[in-house]
Task: structure prediction
Amino acid sequence: MRKIIILFILFISATNCRTNPVSEADRQKAEKLNSEAVQLFLEMDTLKAKELYTQAKNLDPYNWTYRGNLINMYVEEKKFDKAFELVDELNEEQKNSVIYYQLKGSIHDKKGELDKAKSSYKKALTKYEDIEVETEMDLNNLIGYTTIQTLAGQKEKAVDKVNETLNLAWLTKQNIEYLETFRNEFEYYQGGGYKEFDFTRDIEICTKNIDSLQSFLKKNHINTSGSNWTTGQYSGSIFVAKKFKSGLENLGIEECEKNASQQNL
Result:
């Protein structure tokens, strides 16, 4: 669920900034209901959380956050028809937006309907305004756009756009790490949908120096999914998602069980 929520947030944060005709009183009520729903969700009271999310959505239908939270819950329960209903009940103006097609694509994606998801993502791209990165706040919009580009089958354009942004002189170290992490995900994307962006521990690499190996992999555009300290011949191991396997092979790095005295990195 974490990854789909992140994808929703990337678009919701920008979309909610537009003019909202709902009264201030109703907006505040909706915000309060949403906060209560979040807490109930964390306490595993999903039924009551849905009720409050629904009330918040009805009070302020122009705030995508409430609808997105509700959709997330139905998607995780695999109640895809309910999730689609929440998208299809939008008015015509809302349907002519990036997030409408992005939400539909996300639901198709989670349902395993990758062709339909890809088609929706392509439509989302046509609704985007030009992406100009002038401040740190613009980086989320950039990643939102390039994520959709990747999911729509345009990963090369996404990688180029992020690499171009990485040349900006004002970026902080944290900004660069953020952009590089997504750039690496896009570069090795294999067309399997948003689940590919999960940091799974598919491949374990034994090493005598975890920090050195992590740095080496990062330099070669390979993200790591965690590490594990051990005793014995090696000081520990690093985990990598399976989509980076070709990159590891190009570097001559093998999985733990395939080597006897490998990585001195």
Observations:
- The first helix runs from residue 2 to 15.
- The first strand starts at residue 203 and ends at 207.
- Residues 200-258 form one domain.
